[in-house]
Amino acid sequence: MATPEIVFAGTNGGAVTEIAEYEATGGFGGLARARAMAPADVITELNASGLRGRGGAFFPTGRKWSFLPSREQVAKPHYLVVNADESEPGTFKDREIMLRVPFRFLEGCLIAAHAIESRHVFVYIRGEYEREFETLVAALAQIRKRKLLGKVTVVVHRGAGAYICGEETALLESLEGRRGQPRTKPPFPAIAGLYASPTAVNNVESITTATSILEMGGAEYAKLGVESSTGTRVFSLSGDVVRGGNYELPHGYPLSDLINVEGGGIAGGRTLKAVIPGGSSTVILTASEIENVTLDFDSMTAAGTAIGSAAVIALDDRCCMVQLGARVSQFYEHESCGKCTPCRVGTHWTTSILQKIEDGRGAPADLDLLLDVCDRVNGKCLCPLGDTAMIAIASYVAKFRDEFQAHIDQGGCPLGGASSLEGILAPVTVYERHIHAYGVGRMIERPLEVIA
Amino acid sequence: MSASLADRVQALRGLYPDPRSAVVPALQLAQAENGGWLSEEAFRAVADALELTPAYCLSVASFYDMFRVEPVGRHVVEICTNVSCAVKGAQQVVDAFERELGIETGTTTGDGAVTLRTVECLGGCGWATVVAIDNRHRLHVRSADVPAIVEELRGDA
């Protein structure tokens, strides 16, 4: 394929984990170039590239860096925090980046540190990524030995299992040694982030791409992709496709081609029913809706959804939309940090209502009740977790209302036991017993019959 | 806490401007040393090393899924049951593990060899079903693969 690789350039499908191999293909050239430039000029280069955040919010990376106040304005150290807490269901690109191009990623950390005039880099990597952690630590040791760190210290900090810590302020709380609960914004991290100091929080792929931008130049990078979404992106494809995996493609690539060409189409000769296009927090698209959608910000927005974390989940005709809603809702209920009431209580209600409908005990009013709960949560939360959970769940009802209605009318799932999600349950938390064992209170029993 | 662990916790403190930041890494070290779970003694040791209280350390640990406050088996099997793994047969994998191990999800075999859990997305969606065995991810696991995995774990125990 003629697609240029940027993030995975020079890997030939494998991994580059020896520093000599990385240097032989021009590695650390971007860093040398950046360090020869004034920090503000590095940011100008990033702005020229059009790079926008790859974590999900798509915020321009150069602009984010430019928000940090100068030392004269705020006499505190600057911090770079890299968000490697990849946890959005469907997303698994950052782990492959850290495994296959650890030096390009760490070089990007040093470039970013130079741009924001920081001497302290913290990479917050999710605890479940043990191999990735070891790969980064090994690569970092090689960089240290080559004396490329300069005056910068890089600490790779492991998380301990919490989806919410992908939210930047929750991540900062966690990194400060607290429960990972989001902060109110403002102040934004650029002003008061880690230890209340100016902080840039960037995604792994954004940082890795910065290395390539410094190598090739921002203007050259901007020629790739489409106008509003420059460059390439690593798309995570999963679900009912023949070949799930990560595919680096230019923005603007057709969504249906990702599924049918890269992914080899829907497995088992079945038909596509729906696509979750940007991680489980995004609005679902029906099979007919994806026809002219391309993988970029504008096209996704025009289709009423979002490019999010670039995680495409394809679902075939065996997928029951009520079960999908219940399972997605269970996830957000489990991961809600509990700090704000709409999210903590609302996700429990949506799970209960959806489970009730799936079990064949749905009442005619339940669909409106479900949408009402979604409406009472969306836009009322401290952070995007509750909001996006409700947006996703409400979209299943909006686009597959007949299927939800059929569950209520028929007193059960029209697919019978044939749904691809049949029997699937949220994780069994053994926490109830833990809390009990410590005698510090008891979690409420939560049978799903609460609204029978 | 062993002397070497105490030294490692002290070394962790030095990585951060505020020693409180070391609480999660310190709890991870303590959990690994204590056979995969955090006892009251482990909490006390971490708290002492970081000049925090045991209650504070428990309040932090209780927020995160990867900390455990009761004994676990010598091996921990964790199966992702989020959407992408679910549509690829995660529940059949769960069923197969329950059958082979003779236990329910969320419990440990009587001989203390294996704890079985289901977990949220492990970040391997395109390679479903993902099963983490002692934190190492196995990809493309099918129910037919389970008997061999269980045999391997039992032989290893």
Task: Please tag this protein with its features.
heterodimer, A: 452 residues, alpha/beta, Rossmann fold, Ubiquitin-like (UB roll), de novo design (two linked rop proteins), 3 domains, 5-stranded mixed β-sheet, 4-stranded parallel β-sheet, 19 helices, 9 strands, globular, disordered C terminus, B: 157 residues, alpha+beta, Arc Repressor Mutant, subunit A, Glutaredoxin, 2 domains, 4-stranded mixed β-sheet, 7 helices, 43% helix
Model description:
The complex is a heterodimer of chains A (452) and B (157). Chain A has 452 residues and is of the alpha/beta class. Chain A has 3 domains: 19-222, NADH-ubiquinone oxidoreductase 51kDa subunit (Rossmann fold, 3-Layer(aba) Sandwich); 234-316, Ubiquitin-like (UB roll) (Roll), CATH 3.10.20; 321-438, de novo design (two linked rop proteins). Chain A has helices at residues 19-24, 29-35, 39-49, 61-66, 93-100, 102-115, 130-145, 168-175, 189-192, 204-216, 218-222, 255-262, 297-302, 321-335, 341-358, 366-377, 384-399, 401-410, 431-438; strands at 79-84, 120-125, 153-158, 199-203, 232-239, 245-250, 272-276, 285-286, 311-316. Chain A is globular. The termini of chain A are far apart. Chain B is α+β, with helices and mostly antiparallel strands and 157 residues long. Chain B folds into 2 domains: 3-61, Arc Repressor Mutant, subunit A (Orthogonal Bundle); 75-156, Glutaredoxin. Chain B contains 7 helices and 4 strands. Chain B has helices spanning 3-13, 23-33, 40-50, 54-61, 83-86, 90-101, 146-156, and strands at residues 75-80, 114-119, 131-133, 136-138. The chains are: A alpha/beta (452), B alpha+beta (157). At the A-B interface, strand 3, strand 5, strand 9, helix 14 and helix 19 of A face helix 2, helix 4, helix 5 and strand 2 of B.
